[in-house]
Amino acid sequence: MPSLLSKTDGPAYHIINGAAQKPLLLVCDHASNRVPSRLGDLGVSAEEFQRHIAWDLGAARVTTLMAERLNCTAILSAFSRLVIDVNRPFENEDLIALHSFGTDIPGNRNLSHEDRQARIQEIFVPYHEAIASKIQELRDIHPFTKLALIHSFGPYAMPNTPLRPWEIGIVWNRDAETAHRLMTYLRAKTNYRIGDNEPYSMKKCRGYTMETHAEDQGPCTLIEIRNDLIRDETGCAQIADLLAGFFEDEGEG
Predict the structure, then answer these.
(1) Which CATH architecture has domain 13-250?
(2) What does pTM read for this prediction?
């Protein structure tokens, strides 16, 4: 099978505070808009790579600031969701998308089995192995280690549609207890409009990371931040401090 990642591309993920042993693991699935050098630009313009279709704007910075404040471990994906979406099951058509929100991705057309497997084996699998390894290490020390996934979402579902009213969404399925504590905390501490399984719902959509590493295995929550709030350092710091405060109150900070 041909190799996908070169030495200059680096690994499939980045770890912050890898030696930390706090009972909290932060994960950012769509942290980057980078593409392995051997894939060029996938036939997509540079402007498109700044959109939500390529990554979760601001999410990596919020995750990093939270990890630094809480002195906990964070694992961040290193490549764009346009290369492979590490939060999609293998059978999902958006695992390696042919188009996204009106944008075609020519570099994902007519992939050979070998090319598809290279993306899975060199990006998807190592990323999830790193998450599984770290969370097991933490659970061996702290059985109730919490997993928190940090995402962002666009202000508009599609062009020419109304502004989404939610500013922070808490996305959950089986762990309603953690989700409701977090929503209660946020509503008490801020005037942000908090979405309960909005703008996405784990009751309706499948998220590979939460299902694989958290559901029925330990406390977990997925946090969605509207990305117009975290487009600069000030916004990222404000949201990171707000969210970190919850985990400090929970005893993980």
Answers:
(1) 3-Layer(aba) Sandwich (3.40)
(2) 0.96
Tokens of 54: 């390529």
Beta strand segments in the chain, E: 13-16, 24-28, 73-77, 99-100, 103-104, 146-153, 168-171, 194-196, 220-226
CA distance 48 to 60: 18
pLDDT in tens, 74-98: 999 999 999 999 999 999 999 999 9
Q: Provide the residue ranges of all domains of the chain, joining segments of one domain with +.
A: 13-250
CA separation for the pair 201, 52 (Å, rounded): 18
Burial of 114 (0-12, 13-18, 19+ CB in 10 A): exposed
Phi and psi based region of residue 57 (left: phi greater than 0; alpha: psi -120 to 50; beta: remaining): beta
pLDDT tens string 203-238: 877 799 999 998 888 999 999 999 999 999 999 999
* SS3 call for 22: coil
CA-based max dimension of the chain: 53
Inter-axis angle of helices 233-250 and 59-70, nearest 10? 40
